[in-house]
């Protein structure tokens, strides 16, 4: 699903943010991405969802070498990837329902089916009373839940999430990670960046730990590997 070989990344002429990253993530796996602030977690995720290209090394997604992939093949590849951004990136003039509906409308699903799926998911994440609210009227935690719902609604092949529980309380954070767990059981490969060690400890998933630009694989809280 995801393969990096000796990947390095720098911005402009600055120092390398990531150094010699090599990893292989199997289809249907679930990994937490941990490490201190400034370690390069967001940069690593950007490589996974094709927002950046490496300075060196090989990035292979879904069996395709990104460096040699024709430009016209990138959009369909990106549509297989769900992303939860730290800054949410909701569309201000759209309601919660319409923000979450966007991936399904792009895919051409019937409007009745879209409304049913989206409403059910927003209720599950505790936003039943805010279906028609616009982002500006929602709290940071509520906006985060809308962003997560939008990322998972189309059941992507790969989902990457950058601090998805950073703006919600512990109970809601656990509930959102349970949602990711369910999506993972349906086959989605998950990479979730987080600082919340208490939540990580409640799930038996391995972690990719990034520090000083270097990556290592650690076992899950209960001894699980990949």
- Mean pLDDT reading: 91
**Strand segment tally:** 10
Rg over CA atoms, rounded to whole Å, is 17 Å
Q: Approximately how much beta-strand content do the residues carry?
A: 15-25%
The rounded distance between the terminal residues' Cα atoms is 13 Å
Biggest pleated sheet: 6 strands, mixed
The parts where pLDDT drops under 50 for at least 5 residues are 222-226
Write out the strand line-up for the largest beta sheet, numbering strands in chain order.
6-7-8-3-9-10
How helical, in percent, are the residues? 25-40%
Helix count from the secondary structure assignment: 7
State the order of secondary-structure elements, H for helix, E for strand.
Answer: EEEHEEHEHHHEHEHEE
Please state the overall shape, judged from the principal axes of the Cα atoms: globular
Describe the structure.
This protein is an alpha/beta fold and 226 residues long. The chain has a domain of 59 residues. Helices cover 32% and strands 25% of the residues. It is built from 7 helices and 10 strands. The protein has a 6-stranded mixed beta sheet with strand order 6-7-8-3-9-10, sandwiched between helices. A hairpin with a 5-residue loop joins strand 1 and strand 2. Helix 3 crosses helix 4 and helix 3 runs parallel beside helix 5. The longest helix has 16 residues. The protein is globular, with a radius of gyration of 17 Å. It starts with a strand and ends in an 8-residue tail after the last strand.
């Amino acid at each position: 699903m995801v393969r990096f070989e000796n990947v390095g990344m720098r911005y402009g002429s600055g120092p390398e943010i990531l150094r010699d990253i090599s990893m292989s993530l199997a289809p249907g796996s679930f990994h937490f991405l941990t490490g201190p602030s400034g370690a390069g977690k967001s940069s690593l995720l950007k490589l996974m969802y094709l927002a950046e290209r490496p300075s060196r090394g090989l990035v292979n997604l879904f069996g395709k070498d990104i460096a040699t992939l024709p430009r016209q093949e990138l959009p369909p590849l990106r549509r297989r990837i769900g992303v939860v951004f730290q800054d949410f990136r909701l569309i201000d003039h759209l309601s919660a329902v319409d923000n979450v509906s966007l991936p399904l409308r792009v895919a051409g699903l019937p409007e009745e089916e879209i409304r049913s799926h989206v409403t059910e998911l927003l209720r599950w994440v505790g936003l039943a009373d805010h279906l028609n609210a616009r982002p500006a009227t929602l709290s940071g935690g509520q906006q985060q839940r809308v962003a997560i719902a939008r990322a998972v609604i189309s059941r992507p092949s790969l989902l990457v999430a950058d601090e998805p529980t950073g703006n919600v309380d512990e109970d809601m954070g656990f509930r959102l990670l349970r949602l990711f767990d369910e999506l993972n059981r349906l086959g989605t490969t998950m990479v979730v960046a987080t600082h919340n060690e208490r939540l990580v400890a409640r799930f038996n998933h391995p972690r990719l730990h990034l520090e000083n630009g270097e990556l290592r694989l650690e076992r899950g809280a209960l001894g699980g590997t990949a």
